What we know:
This protein is mainly α. The chain is built from five helices and two strands. The chain has a two-stranded antiparallel sheet with strand order 1-2. The longest helix is centred in the C-terminal third of the chain and has 11 residues, at 45-55. The protein is globular and about 30 Å long. The mean pLDDT is 94.
Amino acid sequence: MAIKITLDEALKKRHMTSKELCRLIGITEANLSILRSGKAKGVRFQTLNKICYYLNCSPGDLLQFDG
Length: 67
């Protein structure tokens, strides 16, 4: 896929675990794992908004075009 998910890097930079993020945004660890691995077919804007809010970042910090 041409879109690379850089959520792991954003979590490390902010010293947060994926478990903490799941609790904050209200999704399961399994769903976050699918997103982190790049296997997700899509992501809801509401979920992306919550991730950006709690990680204090923008969508461009989490998604990169790999061409």
